[in-house]
Amino acid sequence: MKIKTAEFVMSNSNVINAPKERLPEYAFIGRSNVGKSSLINMLMERKALAKTSGKPGKTQLINHFKINDEWFLVDLPGYGYAQVSKKKRVIFQYFIENYFKEREQLVCTFVLIDSRHDPQKIDLDFMRFLGENQIPFCLIFTKSDKLPSSKLNKQITSYKKKLLQHWETLPTSFLTSSTSGLGRKEFLEFIDGVNKDVAKDFK
């Protein structure tokens, strides 16, 4: 897939106000500071499509971007350790949960995981939420360039073994680097394939 156009459409905090167009939708979410905005910009080959920041919690709304006039990329607030008030965090949790439960156009969720870290309870809990609500998801291991290849492979293998303690089969996963562009081709090919598979449902 070649990215021809990538345009911001809207931000909102209520799934009711999300775009009405019947297009396949892909959501990106992960713990704060997992490198989500940098990954989105790398995938779309845009320097500032998604806002990056050294301060966790930059994304605080549901952000819709239309890609190639064919599908929506949805940038969601990070969960976990965002430097925001407890009250705001509760609000985030509420509208994010509503988005996942009510958004009919959502065809896949990409859960971003920092490849340098061992499995975190908050990530595992979120995956369980997706599974319990029958929401398809993939794992995106970010920041793969931050570890030597031998240590990286060991880390990913260990992570998958941990997941198999809770899941019968592993979700599709991608190894990425926003710095080198690793994983971009495979990632976009996956989306292209899903778009073709679900095309009949969006006519």
Report the biggest beta sheet as strand number plus sense, adding barrel if it closes. 7 strands, mixed
Q: From the alpha-carbon coordinates, what is the Rg to the nearest angstrom?
A: 16 Å
Q: Low-confidence spans: pLDDT under 50, at least 5 residues?
A: 53-58
Within the largest sheet, what's the order of strands? 1-3-4-2-5-6-7
Strand portion, in percent?
Answer: 15-25%
Determine the CATH superfamily: P-loop containing nucleotide triphosphate hydrolases
Helix-strand sequence? EEHEEHEHEHEH
Considering DSSP H and I runs of 4 or more, what fraction of the residues is helical?
25-40%
Class by alpha and beta content: alpha/beta
Termini separation = 21 Å
The whole-number mean of residue pLDDT values reads: 88
Shape: globular
Describe, in plain words, how this protein is organized in 3D.
Helices cover 33% and strands 21% of the residues. The chain has one domain: P-loop containing nucleotide triphosphate hydrolases (Rossmann fold). With 203 residues, the chain is α/β, with parallel strands linked by helices. The chain has a seven-stranded mixed beta sheet, with helices on both faces. The radius of gyration is 16 Å and the shape is globular. The chain is built from five helices and seven strands.
Gist?
Helix content is 33%, strand content 21%.
Features:
single chain, 203 residues, alpha/beta, Rossmann fold, 7-stranded mixed beta sheet, 33% helix, 21% strand
